[in-house]
Amino acid sequence: MTIFIIDKNINTIKSINKVLKDFSEFNCIGTSSNIEKATNVILKQNPDLIFLNIDAECEKPFEFVQELKVFKNSIPLFVAISSSKENAYAAIKSGFIDILINPLTELEIRKTVLKLQNNFATQFRNNICLKSYKDYQYLKTDEILFLKADNNTTDFYMGDGTVVNAYKTLKTFEDILPNNFYRIHKSYIINKNFISRIQYGKSTCTIKKNVQDVPFTKTYIKAIDSINASLLAYSYVSLK
């Protein structure tokens, strides 16, 4: 995760960088106290996170964050730095994920970085690694259609038509896959994002990019109802 700091206080910058050194996944790519120069860096280098002093470095910090959306489809995460606790509510309401109150302490910075670490893991971990001895195979989770149990092994059905075998049980993957994957059968886990049809009468799901339907059972009907409710929420409904 790349980080940029907008603040003129040298001690603040040193304190943040001191904590960041303890986390290998974070890389500070620069600092600036000039909002124009900072904006140019943001648009050019696309940092994942920005620490922004909302007291002095930017006349209208919350408008600054909103204006970035005009130029970028995906803007960075923001952490506010301020000497006023009253600014905390306004910062969170404006989309900042956290606020640090001056004078900064190492403990409070570390707490914020640990929050970021959790957020980073959730947002950017989109591969699953199939390890067998010294063989490491990586699959993108957003390309997995469904998983099928085959005794004590698991077959991954991919969007490109390939089937990848893993020497682990289905339960192993049920515990680590993202929340768009649902167990709908003792032998199947399905990626909700590829479902094009749910037939309760036949107890089957139709999968995009796949010729065969995937069955579900009454044991997992709550999962099917949850998938259906989620898909309905983002669909126009036409009754035949």
UniProtKB/TrEMBL annotation:
One of its GO terms (molecular function) is DNA binding. Pfam families: LytTR. InterPro entries: CheY-like_superfamily, LytR-like, LytTR_DNA-bd_dom, Sig_transdc_resp-reg_receiver. It comes from Gramella jeungdoensis. Residues 128-230 form the HTH LytTR-type domain. This is Response regulator transcription factor. Keywords: Activator, Cytoplasm, Two-component regulatory system. Required for high-level post-exponential phase expression of a series of secreted proteins. Residues 2-117 form the Response regulatory domain. Gene3D superfamilies: 3.40.50.2300, LytTr DNA-binding domain (2.40.50.1020). SMART domains: LytTR.
